Amino acid sequence: MFELEKERVFYYFEKISSIPRESGNEKAVSDWVLSWTKTLGLEAAQDAAFNLVIRKKASAGYETAAPVILQAHMDMVCEKTPESSHDFTKDPILLKVENDWLTSACKTSLGADNGIGMACAMAILEDDSLAHPPLEVIFTVEEETTFKGANSISPELFYSKRMINLDHADEKELIAGSCGGTGVMFTLPLSWEKCENSELGKNENAGYEAYEIKVCGLKGGHSGEDIHRGRGNAIQLLFRVLQEIVSVGGKVISVYGGTNRLAISREAQAMVLINDRQAAEEKITAMKAVFQKEFGKSAPDLDVMMESAVTKISENERICYLKDSEFEKMAAVVRLFPDGIISMSGDFPGQVDSSNNLGIIRAFPETGELQVISEIRGLYRTMVEDTKSRIEMLGSLFGAKVEYFAGYVSWEYAQDSCLRKTALDVYKKMFGEEMKVSTVHAGLEGGMFTEKEPEMDIISIGPSCQYFHSPMERVSIRSVKKFYGFLTALLAKLK
Q: What is the pTM of this model?
């Protein structure tokens, strides 16, 4: 890093990386940046959520130009490898150079999302040799979790109607819209039958033994950005298996799958009672072959397993299982629940416009209910509302409760954008190639700002990064340099 420190973007990125800034813990980095603005004599305001708005006057000759916002978020997703001892509440993230890539030396996520955007904005604020219109730099909090910063920031703190969001990860691409969405909690009451563990093998339970059925080895991924990759949802695949198991006399005890509504489910499992092991094993083998045929290329490690669960159930424990009619109700809900791509874009071929990701499922006799948690995404508000209505109709049919949480609005694609046109022109003149325009099937903060100022003209750009939200996260050093040159040239054209 020593040579890179001479370049101000990397210097500031290292400073930012030394301050813990997990979502919800941005006060320290916000305070540090606020203190730094005072050393430069810049006007700055910090609100109650620790959002920052920093102003810099126009350079000579740009005094009458319309102002422009540079916007990034301060928080980061904190992930680490199992062997890492890093403490995200107090430890700095040390940086490491590997050829053209800047990575974390701590076996953690890097925080280039969106620290590198912050660093670019800070380098511009510091450099008085640059040509630019009046600048407003907005750094927000909790983008990675709740969008609290962009949602709560008062429009009275800024007056610009042009915004350059610095939260994209492909130097050759300009983002012109992002989806809105909401979390969904779908709760269905279910009834379990009871029998003593000691009764297994007797009377109506004759020959039954407990087994665990598991679907695993899928790749999963981001519920928006990877929803089109055909990787399969472990929850849906598990229910295809369970329907086969029940068809040969199996009884379902419980179901558990997925870890996050924002992630495509990689694993799902169920506890079942089986009285014909051979028939069940034949069904497992057959379904495994079906899945490997359907998903072999996208998930070569996909597996379906059946293992004895006798050791997981104590001798005196009361076993509860779903009657066939109750399982059929649960299976109908899961199999009919909107999952995956719902609609594709007519403006951008190959781009997903709306989806719903069935991310988590829980069904235990202790709770007496099925709980499904999903994430709806849509480029237009109407798409989100349409998917909500479909889920509500399903809930009404089966007597389920539907609740929404952690909603955010879409940044809708604008057919005409002066800022976008200027950026595309500057890029082509600088690099001799067209910059790709697209929308992203993930949430960006642009939607919250257009809610506050409907006339806001927004683009999202950034240097090339890879593997966000993982310990493999990295950012291209060459790309950061190229992007910074492009960004400063773009500002010079905004008269």
A: 0.80
